[in-house]
């Protein structure tokens, strides 16, 4: 029981430590310079205060779905696709919204 209370207390402390500021002028953001295979995502980091470059994943390529409450993603599927688990090939890949994936 003591272990459970301790773990819950640690979780609350960590959650409270991650607080967003309401004034982005107080946040120091690194300058971003995206490469040709990346996309600029405005206000993606530090509670919506900083920009981020994300690597674009093309249709049919493997991807990692975003984790709720996890770190911000460093990549994303190209426009018109989404990161989806495709059962018949056992992979999580970027597929079109109306996909019919068959492995070559």
Number of strands: 5
Which percent range fits the helix content?
10-25%
| Secondary structural class | alpha+beta
How would you classify the quaternary structure? single chain
Rounded to the nearest angstrom, the distance between the terminal CA atoms is: 54 Å
Tell me the β content. Answer: 25-35%
Taking pLDDT < 50 over at least 5 consecutive residues as the criterion, the unreliable ranges are: 12-16
> What strand order characterises the main sheet?
1-2-3
- Give, in order, the helices and strands: HEEEEE
Largest sheet geometry:
3 strands, mixed
Q: Whole-number average pLDDT?
A: 82
Shape: flat
As a whole number of angstroms, the C-alpha radius of gyration is 19 Å
Tally the helices: 1
Keywords: Signal
Signal peptide: 1-17
Task: Give the SSE layout.
Blueprint: H1 2-17, E1 38-45, E2 50-57, E3 75-77, E4 81-86, E5 91-96
Parallel strand pairs: 2-3
Antiparallel strand pairs: 1-2, 4-5
Keywords: Signal
Signal peptide: 1-17
What can you see in these coordinates?
Keywords: Signal. It is a single chain. The protein is an alpha+beta fold. Helices cover about 15% and strands about 30% of the residues. The chain has 1 helix and 5 strands. It has one helix at about 1-15; strands at about 40-45, 50-55, 75, 80-85, 90-95. A 3-stranded mixed beta sheet has the order 1-2-3, with no helix packed on it. Strands 4-5 form a two-stranded antiparallel sheet. The radius of gyration is 19 Å and the shape is flat. It starts with a helix and ends in an 8-residue tail after the last strand. Mean pLDDT is about 80; it is low at about 10-15.
């Amino acid at each position: 029981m003591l272990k459970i209370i301790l773990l819950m207390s640690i979780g609350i402390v960590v959650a409270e430590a991650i607080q967003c500021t309401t004034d982005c002028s107080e946040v120091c953001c690194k300058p971003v310079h995206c490469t040709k295979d990346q996309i600029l995502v405005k206000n993606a980091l530090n509670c919506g205060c900083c920009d981020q470059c994300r690597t674009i994943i093309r249709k049919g390529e493997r991807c990692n779905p975003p984790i709720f409450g996890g770190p911000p993603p460093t990549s994303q599927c190209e426009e018109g696709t989404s990161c989806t688990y495709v059962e018949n090939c056992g992979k999580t890949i970027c597929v079109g919204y109306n996909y019919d994936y068959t492995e070559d």
